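Ticket #4471: structure output looks truncated?

Reporter: J.K.
Steps to reproduce: submitted the chain below (233 residues) through the standard prediction queue, then opened the result file.
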Amino acid sequence: MPALRLRRHEIHDLTTPTQLSLTAYILLAGSSLFVIVDPLATVPAFLAMTPTDTPQQRVRMARLACWVAAGVLLTFASVGKWIFKLLGITMPAFELAASVVLLLVALDMLRAQRSRVQETSEETAAGVEKTDIAVTPLAVPMLAGPGAISTAVLLRNQAANFAQHLALYLCILAVAFASYVILRLSARGARWLSPIALNITARIMGLLLAAVAIQFALNALHQLNPAWLPGAG
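Returned output as attached by the reporter:
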């Protein structure tokens, strides 16, 4: 009987997410999503892929891309956990895998480089040849790539109540809107975007993203065995 109680306790620890206050959760969700979507770093590729388009056409493509990106992230945030259950993937395993992906992106951001996890040179080149880049490659994978999708699923797992679930969905919409504003401002050119300022911003956001990635990994290890990292949860 004690052994049975222990197993139930272990299962509870394995499946119960770390609880944060609503304010802390909103700050975590909003900052990590904006950093991983990284619309500022998307601007140069966006302009390079639309050299012959008018500003109005660029604005239309930016609007559609941000709607599609928001839809993809909302979909995975809503049903991603159930997909993993269907495939037999535990959340700690996914958290560890996602933390590696996010860390790779963060390391490239610290070097002021656009990560190949978010987009490859082949995808950018293919985008130049397309007449409409809104859905692909702009929305997926540049805005809603593997890192952003992983982050949305992990944040959904961290949400402990309805208020936090709703906050996550609103954060996704807010980041999509912010991305649209940034792309819209760049539609007539990005002379306002200083390369030095862009590199500094990328490095700062990369450092924040690296911290988020490490925290996700620590949370996963804590869920697997609380005795390993008693203070991580």
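Triage note (M.O.): checked the attachment and the full token line is present. Residues 42-224 form one domain.
Status: closed, working as intended.
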